[in-house]
Known about the structure:
Blueprint: E1 14-18, H1 23-34, E2 38-42, H2 46-54, E3 68-69, H3 77-88, E4 95-98, H4 113-141, E5 145-149, H5 164-182, E6 188-194, H6 215-227, E7 232-235, H7 237-247, H8 251-262
Parallel strand pairs: 1-2, 1-4, 2-3, 4-5, 5-6, 6-7
Helix pairs in contact: 1-6, 3-4, 4-5
Amino acid sequence: MPLNSPLRHWQGRSVWLVGASTGIGRATASALHARGARVIVSARNAELLQSFADSHPADPATGRVAAQALPLDVTQADAVRAAAEHIRTGGPIDLAFYCAGYYKPQRATAYDLADMLMHDQVNYVGALHLLDAVLPDMLARRSGHISLISSVAGYSGLPKSLAYGPTKAALINLAETLYLDLQDAGLGVSLVNPGFVETPLTAQNEFHMPALITPEQAAQAILAGWADGEFEIHFPKRFTRWMKLISQLPYSAYFPLVRRMTGL
């Protein structure tokens, strides 16, 4: 039984993707535009956003509207709120997708407080800013869907994930709690937990990334999850199911297994 109302028809729906200049966000925006959604993309890099908008114009023959670029810094609450207000002048936001992310490998033996806080601001606090900007209107309408990208890195602790992993764990908990709070209010909530996807962030990894997929494959998995009304959308399952399994092990088994798997 679906946990959310299935989202299968995108023609005329308004989707705001925050963190969509590259990677999964950009690929998902492209897939939604192809299905007729009104797509608004936000991120800090105005040039990349504009290139996306330029390559996704209106198509009167199919009824597609031009994609819109709306640059902003997710760490600035006022900017996110103003962007949401601007989007709503053209109609309500049907789906808000938070896909902004920041990642640098870090271990506690080289602790960097500034970098820890940057992860927190972009990966988690930015999501809170998005909620602040879209929730009041969605609640008033009793309609809308919020989707957050976390990661399988949020399932449990991993080496080199000191800064990144806790922010993703926080997003998992946030999405679960949002679902419990908002289901009876008529809103949908979904959580996206990717494995390894070929993006500028994962390009920093110097280790073998099992089951690595493209952003386009990730986007198709996300749209399929929304269409099926899933709460957690995780992929590729040949990898994410394994990560789910080992995260349930007792610590006496989990810690030695992770050390053996990673060599760290």
